[in-house]
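DUF732 domain-containing protein, pasting as requested.
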Amino acid sequence: MRAGQVLVGAALALGVLSGCGREAEEPAAPEVAAPTPDAAANSKAAAAIAEAEKAAGIPPKPSDEIAAKYLAALRKINPEIVGDTDPERLIDRGRDQCVTIKSFPDEPDKVLMFTNTRFSSPDHPNGLGDATAKKINKVIVKYICPKA
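Structure tokens follow.
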């Protein structure tokens, strides 16, 4: 006999025997919902993330109004920049680019390289070129990290 068959047989036997000797069906234990984090815990987690981002030099997320203007400005440069990319992802790329802009103020070629890496498209997997990257950086500085 195979080991799998033995295990199946043992499981069936246990199932049958567990039903023996019961006079009445025991009520099932009530299902308890898994605990969910409360608003205070979520708020603390969000504050911790914001503090860590601030320490890393990442600017806070823009308001909905500023985010819409940022996305519209990117679209105006070239609709391909935005394409069907999730807006939150584009905002995060802009926030990351702020760190790059601040970290390498004397290395414009490096800043453009990161811009082309972060802002690419299926038709331009290596970025949209330095001229477009410069425009993207101006939009990022204006809307996402104006203190850069």
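Note for the archive: Residues 1-24 have pLDDT under 50 and may be disordered.
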